[in-house]
Amino acid sequence: MPEIIHVMVGALSDARGRIVVSKRPDHVHQGGLWEFPGGKLESGESPAAGLKRELAEELGIQVRASRPLIRVHHDYGDRHVLLDVHRVDDYAGIPHGREGQPLDWLTPGDMDPAAFPAADRPIITALRLPTLMLITGEDPRQPEAFLARLRDALDAGVRLVQLRAHDLSASDYASLAQAAFELCERQGAQLLLNRDPAEVAHIARHGLHLASPTLMALATRPGRSNDLVGASCHDPRQLARAVELGLDYALLSPVKPTATHPEADPLGWRAFSDWVDPLPLPVYALGGLTADDLNEAVQHGAQGIAAIRGLWPAS
Ligand SMILES: Nc1nc2c([nH]c(=O)n2[C@H]2C[C@H](O)[C@@H](COP(=O)(O)OP(=O)(O)OP(=O)(O)O)O2)c(=O)[nH]1
Protein backbone atom coordinates (compact mmCIF):
# COMPACT_ATOMS: atom_id res chain seq x y z
CA MET A 1 0.00 0.00 0.00
CA PRO A 2 1.70 3.27 -1.09
CA GLU A 3 1.91 6.13 1.38
CA ILE A 4 -1.06 8.50 1.15
CA ILE A 5 -0.01 12.16 1.01
CA HIS A 6 -2.55 14.15 3.03
CA VAL A 7 -2.91 17.62 1.49
CA MET A 8 -4.90 20.43 3.16
CA VAL A 9 -6.64 22.63 0.58
CA GLY A 10 -8.64 25.86 1.04
CA ALA A 11 -11.52 27.21 -1.06
CA LEU A 12 -11.60 30.87 -0.19
CA SER A 13 -14.03 33.30 -1.81
CA ASP A 14 -14.43 37.04 -2.17
CA ALA A 15 -17.67 39.00 -1.72
CA ARG A 16 -18.68 38.15 -5.32
CA GLY A 17 -18.34 34.40 -4.75
CA ARG A 18 -15.12 34.12 -6.79
CA ILE A 19 -12.61 31.56 -5.50
CA VAL A 20 -8.88 32.23 -5.29
CA VAL A 21 -6.64 29.91 -7.33
CA SER A 22 -2.87 29.92 -7.65
CA LYS A 23 -0.47 28.68 -10.30
CA ARG A 24 1.87 25.80 -9.46
CA PRO A 25 5.49 26.41 -10.44
CA ASP A 26 6.50 24.65 -13.69
CA HIS A 27 9.10 22.34 -12.14
CA VAL A 28 6.95 20.68 -9.41
CA HIS A 29 4.41 17.80 -9.51
CA GLN A 30 1.39 18.95 -11.61
CA GLY A 31 3.48 22.03 -12.47
CA GLY A 32 2.06 24.87 -14.60
CA LEU A 33 -1.53 24.02 -13.64
CA TRP A 34 -3.87 26.13 -11.49
CA GLU A 35 -4.63 24.79 -8.01
CA PHE A 36 -6.54 25.62 -4.88
CA PRO A 37 -4.05 26.93 -2.30
CA GLY A 38 -2.74 24.44 0.25
CA GLY A 39 -0.05 21.88 0.86
CA LYS A 40 1.01 18.77 2.72
CA LEU A 41 -0.05 18.14 6.29
CA GLU A 42 3.02 17.85 8.51
CA SER A 43 3.57 14.87 10.76
CA GLY A 44 1.76 15.27 14.11
CA GLU A 45 -0.20 18.30 12.86
CA SER A 46 -4.02 18.43 13.09
CA PRO A 47 -5.90 19.06 9.81
CA ALA A 48 -7.26 22.40 11.12
CA ALA A 49 -3.75 23.55 12.08
CA GLY A 50 -2.35 22.37 8.72
CA LEU A 51 -4.98 24.33 6.79
CA LYS A 52 -4.24 27.50 8.80
CA ARG A 53 -0.48 27.14 8.38
CA GLU A 54 -0.60 26.48 4.63
CA LEU A 55 -2.94 29.41 3.91
CA ALA A 56 -0.85 31.74 6.10
CA GLU A 57 2.35 30.63 4.30
CA GLU A 58 0.92 30.78 0.77
CA LEU A 59 -1.63 33.63 0.93
CA GLY A 60 -0.70 35.61 4.05
CA ILE A 61 -4.17 35.24 5.59
CA GLN A 62 -5.47 33.95 8.93
CA VAL A 63 -8.31 31.44 8.70
CA ARG A 64 -11.07 32.23 11.23
CA ALA A 65 -13.79 29.76 10.23
CA SER A 66 -13.90 26.83 7.83
CA ARG A 67 -15.98 23.71 7.13
CA PRO A 68 -15.36 20.54 5.13
CA LEU A 69 -16.18 20.73 1.40
CA ILE A 70 -14.96 17.40 -0.04
CA ARG A 71 -12.18 14.82 0.40
CA VAL A 72 -10.70 13.48 -2.83
CA HIS A 73 -8.44 10.40 -2.99
CA HIS A 74 -6.49 10.34 -6.24
CA ASP A 75 -3.83 7.99 -7.52
CA TYR A 76 -1.43 9.75 -9.92
CA GLY A 77 0.52 6.53 -10.52
CA ASP A 78 3.71 7.91 -8.94
CA ARG A 79 1.87 9.12 -5.81
CA HIS A 80 -1.47 8.84 -4.03
CA VAL A 81 -2.90 12.08 -2.64
CA LEU A 82 -5.80 12.79 -0.33
CA LEU A 83 -7.00 16.34 -0.99
CA ASP A 84 -8.80 17.40 2.19
CA VAL A 85 -10.68 20.45 0.94
CA HIS A 86 -12.27 23.02 3.24
CA ARG A 87 -14.37 26.03 2.45
CA VAL A 88 -12.98 29.04 4.30
CA ASP A 89 -16.00 31.04 5.51
CA ASP A 90 -14.10 33.77 7.34
CA TYR A 91 -10.51 35.02 7.27
CA ALA A 92 -8.41 38.06 8.14
CA GLY A 93 -5.97 39.69 5.73
CA ILE A 94 -5.82 40.19 1.98
CA PRO A 95 -4.81 37.10 0.00
CA HIS A 96 -1.59 37.61 -1.99
CA GLY A 97 0.93 35.22 -3.51
CA ARG A 98 3.49 35.18 -0.67
CA GLU A 99 5.70 32.71 -2.51
CA GLY A 100 5.62 34.75 -5.73
CA GLN A 101 2.96 32.50 -7.31
CA PRO A 102 0.39 34.15 -9.63
CA LEU A 103 -3.16 34.29 -8.20
CA ASP A 104 -6.51 34.59 -9.94
CA TRP A 105 -10.13 34.81 -8.73
CA LEU A 106 -12.63 32.66 -10.64
CA THR A 107 -16.32 31.88 -10.30
CA PRO A 108 -16.70 28.08 -10.17
CA GLY A 109 -18.72 28.14 -13.43
CA ASP A 110 -15.74 29.71 -15.22
CA MET A 111 -13.16 27.16 -14.02
CA ASP A 112 -11.79 25.02 -16.84
CA PRO A 113 -11.14 21.56 -15.31
CA ALA A 114 -8.39 20.93 -17.90
CA ALA A 115 -6.36 23.82 -16.40
CA PHE A 116 -6.29 22.06 -12.96
CA PRO A 117 -4.74 18.74 -11.82
CA ALA A 118 -6.96 15.71 -12.58
CA ALA A 119 -7.75 15.24 -8.87
CA ASP A 120 -9.42 18.67 -8.77
CA ARG A 121 -12.46 17.83 -10.96
CA PRO A 122 -14.71 16.82 -8.05
CA ILE A 123 -13.62 19.95 -6.17
CA ILE A 124 -14.78 22.14 -9.04
CA THR A 125 -18.12 20.26 -9.17
CA ALA A 126 -18.55 20.60 -5.39
CA LEU A 127 -17.92 24.36 -5.67
CA ARG A 128 -20.53 24.63 -8.44
CA LEU A 129 -23.24 22.80 -6.49
CA PRO A 130 -25.26 24.44 -3.70
CA THR A 131 -25.72 22.81 -0.29
CA LEU A 132 -29.49 22.28 -0.68
CA MET A 133 -31.34 20.27 -3.33
CA LEU A 134 -35.12 20.52 -3.42
CA ILE A 135 -36.90 17.40 -4.61
CA THR A 136 -40.37 18.53 -5.63
CA GLY A 137 -43.32 17.24 -3.59
CA GLU A 138 -46.88 16.56 -4.45
CA ASP A 139 -49.11 17.44 -6.21
CA PRO A 140 -47.95 17.95 -9.80
CA ARG A 141 -51.43 17.08 -11.11
CA GLN A 142 -52.41 20.63 -10.17
CA PRO A 143 -49.72 22.46 -12.10
CA GLU A 144 -50.65 26.00 -11.05
CA ALA A 145 -50.50 25.30 -7.33
CA PHE A 146 -47.37 23.21 -7.86
CA LEU A 147 -45.57 25.98 -9.76
CA ALA A 148 -46.62 28.57 -7.16
CA ARG A 149 -44.93 26.45 -4.48
CA LEU A 150 -41.85 26.03 -6.64
CA ARG A 151 -41.74 29.83 -7.04
CA ASP A 152 -41.91 30.22 -3.24
CA ALA A 153 -39.05 27.76 -2.78
CA LEU A 154 -36.92 29.65 -5.33
CA ASP A 155 -37.77 32.97 -3.64
CA ALA A 156 -36.61 31.42 -0.36
CA GLY A 157 -33.19 30.70 -1.93
CA VAL A 158 -33.37 27.16 -3.36
CA ARG A 159 -30.95 26.94 -6.32
CA LEU A 160 -31.07 23.25 -7.28
CA VAL A 161 -34.36 21.51 -8.06
CA GLN A 162 -35.04 17.91 -8.95
CA LEU A 163 -38.39 17.57 -10.75
CA ARG A 164 -39.79 14.27 -9.51
CA ALA A 165 -43.31 13.55 -10.72
CA HIS A 166 -43.55 9.86 -11.56
CA ASP A 167 -47.35 9.83 -11.73
CA LEU A 168 -47.56 12.24 -14.67
CA SER A 169 -47.90 11.19 -18.31
CA ALA A 170 -44.94 11.96 -20.58
CA SER A 171 -46.71 14.95 -22.13
CA ASP A 172 -47.87 16.40 -18.77
CA TYR A 173 -44.34 15.97 -17.42
CA ALA A 174 -42.92 17.76 -20.47
CA SER A 175 -45.25 20.78 -19.99
CA LEU A 176 -44.53 20.97 -16.27
CA ALA A 177 -40.78 20.72 -16.92
CA GLN A 178 -40.91 23.57 -19.45
CA ALA A 179 -42.71 25.86 -16.95
CA ALA A 180 -40.38 24.81 -14.10
CA PHE A 181 -37.33 25.44 -16.32
CA GLU A 182 -38.48 29.01 -17.02
CA LEU A 183 -38.97 29.70 -13.29
CA CYS A 184 -35.55 28.25 -12.44
CA GLU A 185 -33.78 30.16 -15.23
CA ARG A 186 -35.27 33.44 -13.96
CA GLN A 187 -33.76 32.85 -10.50
CA GLY A 188 -30.41 31.45 -11.63
CA ALA A 189 -31.40 28.01 -10.28
CA GLN A 190 -30.70 24.65 -11.95
CA LEU A 191 -33.43 22.17 -12.90
CA LEU A 192 -32.74 18.42 -12.99
CA LEU A 193 -35.25 16.11 -14.66
CA ASN A 194 -35.91 12.82 -12.86
CA ARG A 195 -37.32 10.77 -15.71
CA ASP A 196 -36.13 8.20 -18.28
CA PRO A 197 -33.30 10.10 -20.08
CA ALA A 198 -34.54 8.99 -23.53
CA GLU A 199 -38.04 10.37 -22.83
CA VAL A 200 -36.75 13.83 -21.87
CA ALA A 201 -34.01 14.05 -24.51
CA HIS A 202 -35.48 17.20 -26.09
CA ILE A 203 -36.81 18.96 -22.98
CA ALA A 204 -35.02 22.09 -21.72
CA ARG A 205 -33.17 21.44 -18.44
CA HIS A 206 -29.84 21.92 -16.67
CA GLY A 207 -29.36 18.24 -16.00
CA LEU A 208 -30.71 14.78 -15.30
CA HIS A 209 -31.35 12.86 -12.12
CA LEU A 210 -31.35 9.07 -12.44
CA ALA A 211 -33.42 6.71 -10.27
CA SER A 212 -31.26 3.84 -8.95
CA PRO A 213 -32.66 1.14 -11.33
CA THR A 214 -31.87 3.46 -14.27
CA LEU A 215 -28.37 4.05 -12.90
CA MET A 216 -27.71 0.30 -12.69
CA ALA A 217 -29.13 -0.38 -16.18
CA LEU A 218 -27.15 2.27 -18.07
CA ALA A 219 -23.85 1.40 -19.78
CA THR A 220 -22.69 5.00 -20.25
CA ARG A 221 -23.35 8.44 -18.80
CA PRO A 222 -26.59 9.77 -20.34
CA GLY A 223 -27.48 13.25 -21.53
CA ARG A 224 -25.64 16.10 -23.18
CA SER A 225 -22.09 17.06 -22.34
CA ASN A 226 -23.19 20.15 -20.40
CA ASP A 227 -25.88 18.32 -18.37
CA LEU A 228 -25.32 18.01 -14.65
CA VAL A 229 -26.00 14.29 -14.05
CA GLY A 230 -26.55 12.54 -10.74
CA ALA A 231 -28.31 9.51 -9.30
CA SER A 232 -30.18 8.14 -6.29
CA CYS A 233 -28.11 5.55 -4.40
CA HIS A 234 -28.82 3.35 -1.40
CA ASP A 235 -25.66 1.25 -1.03
CA PRO A 236 -21.94 1.23 -1.88
CA ARG A 237 -22.52 -0.77 -5.12
CA GLN A 238 -24.78 1.93 -6.52
CA LEU A 239 -22.38 4.67 -5.38
CA ALA A 240 -19.52 2.86 -7.15
CA ARG A 241 -21.63 2.73 -10.33
CA ALA A 242 -22.23 6.49 -10.16
CA VAL A 243 -18.45 6.97 -10.03
CA GLU A 244 -17.84 4.48 -12.90
CA LEU A 245 -20.31 6.32 -15.14
CA GLY A 246 -18.56 9.62 -14.37
CA LEU A 247 -21.63 11.22 -12.79
CA ASP A 248 -21.35 14.64 -11.16
CA TYR A 249 -23.08 13.88 -7.85
CA ALA A 250 -25.05 11.24 -5.95
CA LEU A 251 -27.82 11.21 -3.38
CA LEU A 252 -27.48 8.66 -0.57
CA SER A 253 -30.56 7.64 1.41
CA PRO A 254 -32.23 7.11 3.80
CA VAL A 255 -30.01 8.70 6.44
CA LYS A 256 -32.88 8.98 8.96
CA PRO A 257 -36.32 7.34 9.12
CA THR A 258 -38.65 8.84 6.54
CA ALA A 259 -42.40 8.98 6.09
CA THR A 260 -42.14 8.30 2.33
CA HIS A 261 -40.15 5.01 2.77
CA PRO A 262 -41.06 3.67 6.26
CA GLU A 263 -39.87 0.14 5.31
CA ALA A 264 -36.24 1.18 4.59
CA ASP A 265 -33.57 0.83 7.32
CA PRO A 266 -31.99 4.23 8.01
CA LEU A 267 -28.21 4.40 7.48
CA GLY A 268 -27.31 6.90 10.19
CA TRP A 269 -24.44 9.40 9.87
CA ARG A 270 -21.66 6.92 10.66
CA ALA A 271 -22.38 4.64 7.67
CA PHE A 272 -23.07 7.69 5.53
CA SER A 273 -19.60 9.11 6.12
CA ASP A 274 -17.85 5.70 5.84
CA TRP A 275 -19.44 5.08 2.43
CA VAL A 276 -18.97 8.61 1.10
CA ASP A 277 -15.38 9.25 2.23
CA PRO A 278 -13.58 7.20 -0.46
CA LEU A 279 -15.71 8.58 -3.32
CA PRO A 280 -14.45 11.27 -5.69
CA LEU A 281 -17.84 12.94 -6.08
CA PRO A 282 -20.11 15.19 -4.04
CA VAL A 283 -22.89 13.29 -2.23
CA TYR A 284 -26.08 14.79 -0.81
CA ALA A 285 -27.66 13.22 2.27
CA LEU A 286 -31.36 12.40 1.92
CA GLY A 287 -34.08 10.91 4.08
CA GLY A 288 -35.87 12.52 7.01
CA LEU A 289 -33.66 15.65 6.86
CA THR A 290 -34.31 19.39 6.85
CA ALA A 291 -32.09 22.45 6.46
CA ASP A 292 -31.51 22.20 10.25
CA ASP A 293 -29.45 19.04 9.60
CA LEU A 294 -27.14 20.80 7.15
CA ASN A 295 -24.22 21.39 9.49
CA GLU A 296 -24.23 17.80 10.74
CA ALA A 297 -24.40 16.53 7.15
CA VAL A 298 -21.44 18.68 6.05
CA GLN A 299 -19.41 17.55 9.08
CA HIS A 300 -20.04 13.93 7.94
CA GLY A 301 -18.73 14.54 4.43
CA ALA A 302 -21.95 15.51 2.63
CA GLN A 303 -22.17 18.16 -0.07
CA GLY A 304 -25.42 19.11 1.67
CA ILE A 305 -29.01 18.00 2.14
CA ALA A 306 -31.61 16.89 -0.40
CA ALA A 307 -35.19 16.89 0.81
CA ILE A 308 -38.79 16.76 -0.23
CA ARG A 309 -40.80 17.47 2.91
CA GLY A 310 -38.02 19.44 4.58
CA LEU A 311 -37.73 22.01 1.76
CA TRP A 312 -41.01 21.98 -0.20
CA PRO A 313 -43.10 24.91 1.08
CA ALA A 314 -46.44 24.13 2.73
CA SER A 315 -49.51 24.92 0.59
N1 LIG B 1 -2.43 22.52 -2.91
C1 LIG B 1 -2.94 21.72 -3.85
N2 LIG B 1 -2.34 20.55 -4.17
C2 LIG B 1 -2.93 19.80 -5.12
C3 LIG B 1 -4.13 20.21 -5.76
N3 LIG B 1 -4.47 19.25 -6.66
C4 LIG B 1 -3.54 18.26 -6.60
O1 LIG B 1 -3.54 17.23 -7.25
N4 LIG B 1 -2.58 18.59 -5.66
C5 LIG B 1 -1.45 17.73 -5.37
C6 LIG B 1 -0.17 18.21 -6.00
C7 LIG B 1 0.88 17.71 -5.04
O2 LIG B 1 1.19 16.37 -5.37
C8 LIG B 1 0.17 17.76 -3.69
C9 LIG B 1 0.44 19.05 -2.93
O3 LIG B 1 1.75 19.12 -2.60
P1 LIG B 1 2.62 20.47 -2.57
O4 LIG B 1 3.92 20.13 -3.15
O5 LIG B 1 1.88 21.59 -3.20
O6 LIG B 1 2.68 20.69 -1.00
P2 LIG B 1 3.53 21.74 -0.18
O7 LIG B 1 3.00 23.13 -0.43
O8 LIG B 1 3.50 21.23 1.24
O9 LIG B 1 4.95 21.69 -0.87
P3 LIG B 1 6.41 21.34 -0.37
O10 LIG B 1 6.61 22.12 0.89
O11 LIG B 1 6.45 19.86 -0.19
O12 LIG B 1 7.24 21.80 -1.53
O13 LIG B 1 -1.22 17.69 -3.97
C10 LIG B 1 -4.72 21.45 -5.41
O14 LIG B 1 -5.75 21.88 -5.93
N5 LIG B 1 -4.10 22.17 -4.44
UniProtKB/TrEMBL annotation:
The Gene Ontology biological process annotation of the record reads: DNA repair; DNA replication; thiamine biosynthetic process
Q: Name one GO molecular function term.
A: 8-oxo-7,8-dihydroguanosine triphosphate pyrophosphatase activity
State the source organism's domain of life. Answer: Bacteria
Matching PROSITE patterns: NUDIX (PS51462), NUDIX_BOX (PS00893)
Provide the reaction this enzyme catalyses: 8-oxo-dGTP + H2O = 8-oxo-dGMP + diphosphate + H(+); 8-oxo-GTP + H2O = 8-oxo-GMP + diphosphate + H(+)
Domain Nudix hydrolase, which positions?
A: 2-131
EC top class, as a word: hydrolase
Q: What is this protein called?
A: 8-oxo-dGTP diphosphatase
